[in-house]
Each structure stands twice: as C-alpha cells, then as structure tokens.
Amino acid sequence: MEFIVESVDDLRAVAVALLESLGDRKIIAFDGAMGAGKTTFVQMILKAMGVEEVHGSPTYSLVNEYDSPMYGKIFHFDLYRLNSEEEAYDIGIEEMIYADHVCFIEWPTHISHLLPEDTVWIKIRLNDSLDRVITWDEH
Predict the structure, then answer these.
(1) Which helix H or strand E contains 56, and what residues bound it?
(2) Is the domain covering 2-136 a CATH 1.10.10.10 domain?
C-alpha cells in the first residue's frame, strides 16, 4: 500500500487503513529518516486504536506502554538512543515483542534480527513536494 500524506489531517485515514490491513500481525516497524513523521504517525494510530492519552516519543525511556479498549496492551518503542543490542535485552524487549501485544518500533534496524518474520515494515519518506509517502506490504 502507498499513501501520500499532505497534512496531519490525512494521517487518520492512513492509520485506519494500516489497522485494517494488519490481520494477526502485531509487530510494526517504522523506518524513516529523522523528522520523517514516525512518531506522529504512531500517535495517530494509537488514537485510532482508542487510546485517549497519547504521550510523546519514548526517546529517553525507550518504551511507552498504552492500554487500548480494542487492542489491549500496546508498546511503543523508540530505539534511536539505543547504544547496543545488550541494552535492548536489558529492557526486556524480547519479552515484550513476543508477548502477543501490539508493538510499534521506531528505529527498528537496531534490533532487526530480533524481529519476527511477519513484522510489518512501514517506510516513511518525503517526496519532491515534501509530502510524506507512507508504504507497507500487505500479506
């Protein structure tokens, strides 16, 4: 799927389309440059999942936890400041990823070999018009 997002208002429809395409997959990896809009998109998805109080990026804490009335427990990871794979193990990332909860992971390349095979990889980039282009493969 590919969506061109011209404004933040367009993100709600993209978030709903993503949720509808997930099926049983629960690990969603967000790949994009700094400032591409990964955190903003995750926040919109959380709102579409019924989470009322959405926090900012977990850049310093590495993970935020949410409860959704429709999806249960959700983890949002921002691994930008992860210094080593050992740190990922120290925060218990494997237990969270494989606990059958929805996980949103920013900067997933830091732990890519720990991710399950059915991880949904979302790419966010800017086009020549500086609109966000959001893509993912449906399985």
Answers:
(1) none
(2) no
